Amino acid sequence: MDPAIILVFIVVLMALSFDFINGFHDTANAIATSISTKALTPRIAIILASTMNLVGALTFTGVAKTIGGQIADPFVLENGLVVVLVALISAIFWNLVTWYYGIPSSSSHALIGSLAGAVVTAAGLSGVNLAGFVNIIEALILSPFVAFAVGYVIMSVLRFFFKNANPQPTNRGFRLLQIFTAAFQAFSHGTNDAQKSMGIITFALIAGGLHTTLDIPFWVKLSCAIAMALGTSVGGWRIIKTVGGKIIKLQPMSGFASDVTSATVILTATALGQPVSTTHVISSAIMGVGSAKSFYSVKWGTAQKMVTAWLITLPITSFIAGLLYLVAAIFI
C-alpha cells in the first residue's frame, strides 16, 4: 500500500481522536452552567449536549475551510501529512494535560498553535499564510472581550427588569429556560469546534493527493460530528467543576445570561467562518455576567489561572509541534 495512504489513514484517526477528546474537554464548558444551577442533571445535560453537538457539527463548513486553507496552503506545503500529524499529536497531548489538571484551556489554541509551529519548522515563516493566520488570531483574541461585554450587558438588563421579582418563581423560570439555552450552547459549540477537525482532515487529504478542493467531504463531516458527540457523552467532570463553580457562584439567571451570551458569540463567529475558542468565550461570558452582579463576586484568582493557561497554550503547543516535526524529519 502507498505510504501516503497509510499516513492519511493515521492522520484521520488522530483527527477523530482529537475531536473525541475535544468533545469531553470543551463540551464540558457548554453544559457546566446548566449543571451548576441544577437546571439539568449531569446525565440529561450530557445526552442533550451530545445530540446538539452532532446537529451543530453537520450544519456549517465555513470554519473547516478556514482551518484547512488559511493557516498554510495544503496544495504546496512540502511534507504536509507529517505537518498535520505532529500538529495533532501536540494538540492532543496539551488537551489531555490541561484536562487532567482541570484547566479549561483552549483546544482551538492548541490546534492552531500546533499547526503553525509545525508549518514554520517544516517550511519557515514563508510557509505560513500570514494574512489568514493573523485573521484567525484576531478572532481568537477579540471573541473573549466581546463575550465579556455582552455578558455584562445582558446580565445588567436582566437584573434591572427582575430586581423586584419573587426569587423562587424567577429561579424556577430561568432554570426552565436554561434547558433551551444549554441546547443552544451545545449546538453552537458543534458548529465551531467540530469543524476544526474537519478542516485538518481535509488539509491532510489535499496534502496526500486524495482531494482537490477545500470543500469538506460528507464522510469527513459525519465522522467528526459523531466523534465529538461520543466524546461529549464521556463528560469532563474536572472542567465542569472549574467552569461551573470556581469562577462565580452561578444562579439560574446568571447561568441563563452566560449561556445566551456565549452561544450567540460562538454562532456569530461560525457564521463569519472564524474559529474561536469556545472555552475562552464561555469563561469570559461567565466573568462578564459575574461582574454585572458584583465585581467582587468573580473569583479572579481562578480567572487568572485560566488566562495564564490561555496565554501559554499557543507558544507551548507551537514549540512541541516544532520539536516533534524535527524528530519526524529524521525518518522522512
TrEMBL record:
Membrane among the record's keywords?
yes
What Pfam families has UniProt attached to this entry? Answer: PHO4
Sections of the chain in a coiled coil: none
Under the GO molecular function aspect, what terms does this record hold?
Answer: phosphate transmembrane transporter activity
Question: What kind of membrane protein is this, topologically?
Answer: Multi-pass membrane protein
Query: Where in the cell does this protein reside?
Result: Membrane
A GO BP term here is: phosphate ion transmembrane transport
Alphabetically list the UniProt keywords: Membrane, Transmembrane, Transmembrane helix, Transport
Q: Which GO terms describe its cellular component?
A: membrane
InterPro entries, A to Z: Phos_transporter
The record lists the membrane-crossing segments as: 44-64, 76-97, 109-132, 139-162, 309-331
Q: What is this protein called?
A: Low-affinity inorganic phosphate transporter 1
Tell me the lineage of the source organism: Bacteria, Bacillati, Bacillota, Clostridia, Eubacteriales
Q: What's the encoding gene here? A: pitA
